[in-house]
Specification:
Layout: E1 3-6, E2 9-12, H1 13-18, H2 26-37, H3 41-47, E3 49-53, H4 59-69, E4 73-76, H5 81-94, E5 100-103, H6 122-127, H7 131-146, E6 152-153, H8 178-194, E7 198-204, E8 219-220, H9 225-230, H10 232-241, E9 246-249, E10 252-253, H11 255-261, H12 277-287, E11 293-296, H13 310-320, E12 325-326, H14 331-343, H15 349-368, H16 379-393, E13 395-399, E14 413-420, H17 424-435, E15 439-442, H18 448-456, H19 459-465, E16 468-474, E17 505-509, E18 524-527, H20 533-543
Parallel strand pairs: 3-4, 3-12, 4-5, 5-6, 6-7, 7-9, 8-10, 9-11, 14-15, 14-16, 16-17, 17-18
Antiparallel strand pairs: 1-2, 13-18
Helix pairs in contact: 2-15, 7-8, 7-16, 8-10, 13-14, 16-20, 17-20
């Protein structure tokens, strides 16, 4: 019986499989061990790979890599149900061990199926402050995904959105409050599990503290060890006690922990979780007692590839304690790097067996915990549920002028200022307000002449021209961007809110919830957390006074500042 390291102790394959979250009987565990013993070295190494499917790749390429590597998992980018079912049928025919079939179901089946819409964002769900409603929404997402054969999701995001300037976590998070994030995450884990979808919670040891994106560079969770244990540690402990089966390791450093273990460690020797035996074996497995599957975040990110040559990094991550490598840069190169490391004993037989034990054990959980299939929602029921979430999530954060509604008589002339990295929300708002009888002047943020005229023209003429100024900010969180803050136009900031004392000014955000940071004196500020059409429609209904604001902000939208509360 091969023994494995777990934190500061030793576990056998049998102990791994008979311990939480697996809890197999001795007989069940021994059957799995026999299955592993019959696998070839190539098959075992193939199980370490978690590959990506994209419609950009021809069918022949996808099928070729599946049969050649026999990977442990496959993640889909948005595609068609027909494609997913065809790949599943191919795998059932050609592969003796089925891969995990997964997607990023963070806020909807739109991350899997290109004909689906989602439920806005995790933060919108959280803003409803209604766990029953969240359960219904996640249940719909899970059932839709499960109907195509999906059995794993890289969600929920259990990061705390602590730093308003973090450019990537944002509305993917349930918020900045530990209890709220823990409750929402636990609900998602339960619902996905009940639908035979394995949740992979992410991104250990926790994103949302740094103001940089670990897609581009290794980011840092700079909390003290006490602060970490009282925040992220609480969330992870609760989920591990709940028997969450899988955790994604992020390209994120936690210096306070490493320095508590090795006080003399040099800054240059600190590593992100994906490359840190200290964080994975010491903290996650040793102190938090996690015995499940650890998967890297995407290994083509800058945060992963900043420490070693690629051929060494893919080996270091397995030795650090990651059981599966998510994505590749060059599949053949990465496979050969790991194969050579196993052949040379750099990755020991013990470490390889440990990883494969947890991979096959996690796959066996799907059969062990199988639930009866239930009917999903009709299209009409889905739409009603999405509208409920939108109606209950949109949040009036600030109202310093006792704003009640836009009145087509009193507020007829509206200057609409659309700013952002998307324009979906402003286009829908403009069309709807025009249909409601408002005269809407929509400015182009690239129209320098208009912007300069706004800055330099007579205030009296501008007041005569417009009854209301309506900012529509559509800054969506996207990977690989260095900032997600509002830009008021170059070269002069010509679209800044400079007439807040003269013309009623309303700022709507359909993405980043922290724009008060850059517009602190705006009197009315509303967070909608998503530019999905149902959310935009719900926001308009509230602007027109036909529906009250019901959302509860999951974050400090005032950014911990006094001036953002002023007018």
């Amino acid at each position: 019986m091969i023994k494995m390291e777990k934190g500061f102790g030793i576990m056998t394959q049998l102990e791994i499989l008979t311990t939480t979250p697996y809890n197999f009987s001795n007989n069940e565990a021994n059957e799995l061990i026999k299955k592993m013993e019959a696998m070839s070295l190539q098959e075992k190494i193939g199980q370490l790979f978690f590959l990506m499917h994209s419609d950009m790749y021809p069918k022949e390429i996808i099928e070729g890599m599946l049969t050649k590597v026999k990977p442990g998992g496959l993640m889909y980018r948005p595609t068609s149900e027909k494609t997913i079912l065809a790949i599943k049928a191919f795998c059932e025919k050609e592969l003796s061990i089925q891969p995990f079939f997964s997607a990023n179901l963070e806020s909807g089946a739109n991350a899997l199926l290109n004909d689906q819409s989602g439920y806005g964002s995790a933060m919108l769900l959280s803003a409803t402050n209604d766990l029953d409603l969240v359960e219904n929404a996640v249940n719909d997402v899970a059932k839709t995904a499960a109907s195509t054969g999906i059995n794993m999701t890289f969600s929920p995001v259990v990061d705390l959105q602590i730093n308003p300037n973090n450019p990537v976590t944002g509305t993917r998070s349930f918020g900045d409050q530990v209890d709220q994030v823990a409750a929402m995450s636990a609900k998602c884990v339960d619902v996905f599990s009940d639908n035979d979808i394995l949740p992979v919670v992410k991104h250990f040891p926790g994103d949302g503290v740094d103001d940089r994106d670990h897609h581009l560079l290794p980011s840092v969770n700079s909390l003290s060890l006490d602060e970490w244990h009282q925040s992220y540690g609480v969330v992870y402990r609760q989920l591990i006690e709940q028997e969450v089966p899988c955790i994604m390791a992020g390209h994120i450093l936690l210096p306070a922990y490493d320095r508590s273990v090795t006080p003399t460690i040099a800054d240059n020797d600190l590593r992100p979780a994906t490359l840190s035996k200290s964080l994975l074996q010491g903290l996650l497995r040793g102190e938090l007692n996690f015995n499940g599957l650890i998967i890297t975040d995407a290994s083509n990110m800058g945060g992963f590839n900043s420490f070693y040559p690629r051929s060494q990094a893919v080996v270091e991550t397995i030795n650090a304690g990651c059981d599966m490598l998510l994505f590749t840069k060059d599949l053949e190169e990465d496979y050969q790097s790991i194969y050579a490391a196993v052949a040379a004993g750099i990755i020991s037989p013990t470490r390889l067996e440990e990883a494969v034990t947890r991979i096959l054990g996690t796959k066996a959980l799907l059969e062990k915990n199988k639930h009866p299939k239930q009917e999903g929602l009709t299209i009409e029921q889905q739409q009603q549920l999405k509208e409920q979430v939108a109606d209950k999530g949109v949040t009036l954060v600030k109202n310093a002028i006792d704003f009640h509604r836009l009145d087509v008589e009193k507020d007829k002339k509206i200057l609409l200022l659309p700013l952002g990295n998307e324009l979906k929300a402003s286009q829908q708002i403009e069309k709807t307000l025009v249909n409601e009888g408002f005269n809407v002047m929509t400015a182009d943020s690239k129209d320098l002449q208009f912007g300069i005229e706004m800055m330099m023209s007579s205030s009296a003429k501008t007041i005569e021209r417009y009854d209301v100024i309506l900012y529509v900010l559509d800054y969506q969180g996207k990977s690989n961007q260095t900032t997600n803050r509002v830009e008021f136009g170059l070269p002069m900031g010509q679209f800044m809110p400079a007439m807040v004392k003269e013309i009623p000014t309303i700022m709507l955000s359909f993405g980043n919830p922290y724009h008060l940071l850059d517009a602190p004196r705006v009197p009315v500020y509303i967070n909608a957390y998503s530019n999905q059409s149902e959310v935009v429609a719900a926001t308009i209904e509230k602007l027109l006074g036909r529906s009250p604001f019901k959302g509860v902000s999951p974050v400090d939208a005032f950014c911990g500042r006094f001036d953002t509360k002023c007018y």
